[in-house]
Design brief:
mainly alpha; 0% strand; elongated
């Protein structure tokens, strides 16, 4: 039995474009399902601890 790849997804965009299918509707529908808001606070919540870890690693000698 041969596994079949789905017709949607980023790996199929070029194949569908070559066949002349409309891919914009599929991509926008997929993006709406997993969209979220990126704020300065959420970016800094990740960036500040990572920066501190990067800067203090040589001081600890690890």
């Amino acid at each position: 039995m041969v596994a079949r790849r789905p017709e949607t997804g980023p790996h199929r965009l070029f194949d569908q474009a070559a066949k002349g299918k409309r891919i914009l509707d599929q991509v926008s529908a997929a993006a709406n399902g997993r969209s979220f808001v990126v704020t300065n606070r959420s970016v800094l919540a990740i960036a500040v601890p990572m920066t501190l870890a990067y800067l203090t690693t040589p001081l600890l000698g690890v």
